[in-house]
Amino acid sequence: MDRETLLANLRASLLAGRPCEENTELLTAAQSAAHDLLAAEGVAERGNGPALIRALAGLRLRRMEDATLAALLGRFLGRCAEASLEEPPATTLAPALPEPGRPVFRMLLDEPALPGATGDVATRRDTLRETLAEALPVAGWPDPARIAALDDSFPWFVSITDTILRRVRLAKRLGASQLDLPPILIVGPPGIGKTRYALALAEALDRRGFLQPMAGLSSAFAITGVEPSFQSAQPSLPARAALETGRADPLVILDEIEKVGTDRHHGAPLEALLPLLEPSTAARFRDAFLDRLLDASRFAWCATANAATGLPTPVLSRFEVMPAPEPQAGQIDSILHGFRLDWAKRLGLNFQCLPPESEVTKAMLQRELRRSPDLRRLERMWRTAVERQWLAIQEVTDG
Questions:
Q1: Which of 255, 278, 283, 268 is nearest to 224 (CA)?
Q2: Of 119, 118, 117, nearest to 288 (Cα)?
Q3: CA nearest 139: which of 200, 64, 207?
Q4: At what angle do helices 64-83 and 3-16 cross, to 10 degrees?
Q5: What is d(CA 107, CA 284) in angstroms, rounded to the nearest whole number?
Q6: Who contacts 53 (Cβ-Cβ below 8 Å, separation ≥6)?
Q7: CB distance 90 to 124 below 8 Å
Q8: How many Cβ atoms from other residues are within 10 Å of residue 88's Cβ?
Q9: pLDDT per position in the chain (399 positions), as tens?
Q10: The pTM of the whole model exceeds 0.70
Q11: Cα separation of 338 and 358, whole Å?
Q12: How far apart are CA 123 and CA 134, in angstroms?
């Protein structure tokens, strides 16, 4: 099956939600294509199960057509893997396979016995312990060009990007063994793309972003974890971030930190967060669920907020506050390019397959941006306009 046919069949199967067992030929072709992609990147993976899917997710492909194929293969093989399970596993979180030559770091520090955990909870806890006991990959030195390229999609964040880029270059020039970024707090009006920028920054730094919504969070347990003797038992924030990203140094994004809940009945989340924002105390952070000390000193932290007022002084003192200005009408091309990239990624398409918006649409959106900097609203307007435009083009083509 050639690549174009495979791409078309994968999209059709995903859109229709067809059972994998109805098309074993497509499943075989997808597995073969996945192995070919991995082999081309120098990754040896012989299995066809979850390890194959994780290996695909860990690829950093330069060619857009390869990245599109990898994304579709991952979604299709993941759906087939889920369908083959009679019941969900205790946890689907597992570390990504280390890339050849990438340094690794062990997070789990000690191994005391924990009495009182039985049955499924004990099994889940032991599984997570075993996973974190393995050394997880960490980032190498980020490519300054990738960081600088953030200006193409987020030109209104140029001052923040320049600050981070300057520190990366200085640390490398001084011969530092690793990049040490202090926690940053991006403050700006709602809807200007703070969270999207933070996620893009994680990729540019060769890390993986872990999004922790803070709005309404009213319990310290979300940070510290919940002991296995409770029905709501769960791992701590660092454990969840490491397990989901498969990395020992993710960029944790504390989204809308100023909107955290005020109920202190189960402990204040922001107070529980304080030890993680200092490298010395983060290096020995106790996970209540795992009953283990975790070394989260390699983590990077980025919080977002509409305003810093109201945040406790001990929290603010641990962050470097970075104001984010509003996007300007003159930056409309970069904004629309970002919209197109995000939508193409969600559809599993090459963004170049999406035709550009008309000049009329662009002018209308530029006027709206002058009126309000809310990019969420602007993206909804853009999508409505271009859907109509593209459907009209398709009707003329088909007619």
A1: 268
A2: 117
A3: 207
A4: 40
A5: 9
A6: 74, 77, 78, 81
A7: yes
A8: 8
A9: 788 788 777 766 765 555 566 677 888 888 888 888 778 877 765 566 666 776 766 666 656 567 667 777 777 777 676 555 433 333 344 444 555 566 666 676 654 433 344 457 778 888 888 888 888 888 888 999 999 999 988 999 999 999 999 999 998 888 888 888 899 999 999 999 999 999 999 999 999 999 999 998 888 999 999 887 777 788 999 999 998 898 999 999 999 999 998 766 667 899 999 999 999 999 999 999 998 999 999 999 999 999 998 899 999 999 999 999 999 999 999 898 888 888 888 877 776 777 778 888 899 999 999 999 999 999 999 988 888 877 776 666 665
A10: no
A11: 16
A12: 17
β-pair partners for 300: 251
Could you identify the residue written with the tokens 């083509």? Answer: 397
Q: Which two tokens stand for residue 181?
A: 């970024």
Element (H, E) at 136: strand 136-137
Residue 290 in tokens: 């795992």
Token digits of residue 325 = 């200005």
Residue-wise burial string across 110-127, b where 16 or more C-beta atoms lie within 10 A, e elsewhere: eeeebeebeeebeebbee
